[in-house]
Design brief:
The chain is mainly alpha-helical. 69% of the residues lie in helices and 0% in strands. The longest helix is centred in the C-terminal third of the chain and has 22 residues.
Length: 191
């Protein structure tokens, strides 16, 4: 019997590319401008999570977008209401205070790191009263230190926890003392 040659599976594709009217014959799509690319990348970045102007600018710079295109994209997104540092700072402070039980100092530090202006940071963190912050610190202590601190070492450990979370040292001290009094009351009543 005559030997059959194996047919190259790619050979049909090559020939299709040479035929007039085939898909391969069409010209490639026009290149997008730098501005259009910046806007597209910015929308994609904001679709994953909310960002500050500074964060978005850094993101676009890492994607090698030109400075004029970056400014145009930021302006367009700000005008459309998708980019707002004041809203970001307010929401960030509320979330971190409620969900993570952070204090104002830590929230302010993180907002500074994200490029938020000092006036906006003050507005976002200044909305909380000292009593609310003390209550938040007491909730954190109740979660992390269930019983009253037995000695100075445990008191210091609780105080350091609060200071790391961004509470002012004086407020942290008051919270540890209040937690100690609050935790000791049920024990005395039970005895």
């Amino acid at each position: 019997p005559p030997s059959r040659k194996r047919r190259n599976p790619r050979s049909g594709r090559r020939n299709a590319a040479r035929r007039p009217g085939s898909l391969m014959d069409e010209s490639p799509p026009a290149q997008t401008t730098d501005r259009e690319r910046a806007i597209e990348l910015a929308y994609k970045a904001l679709a994953t999570r909310e960002r500050t102007v500074t964060e978005l600018r850094c993101y676009l710079e890492r994607k090698r977008v030109g400075p004029r295109a970056i400014e145009a994209a930021i302006q367009q997104l700000t005008e459309a209401g998708f980019l707002d540092d004041a809203r970001f700072a307010r929401r960030f402070a509320e979330d971190k205070r409620t969900l993570e039980l952070w204090g104002s100092e830590r929230i302010a530090g993180d907002l500074r790191r994200r490029g938020i202006e000092p006036e906006l940071i003050e507005q976002a963190t200044g909305a909380t009263s000292r009593a609310d912050e003390l209550a938040s610190a007491l909730v954190l202590l109740a979660e992390r230190v269930p019983g009253p601190p037995a000695n100075d070492r445990e008191r210091n450990k609780a105080w350091r926890l609060l200071v790391r979370r961004g509470y002012e040292p004086e407020l942290a001290y008051a919270a540890v003392r209040a937690h100690e009094r609050r935790s000791a009351v049920p024990r005395n009543r039970a005895a």
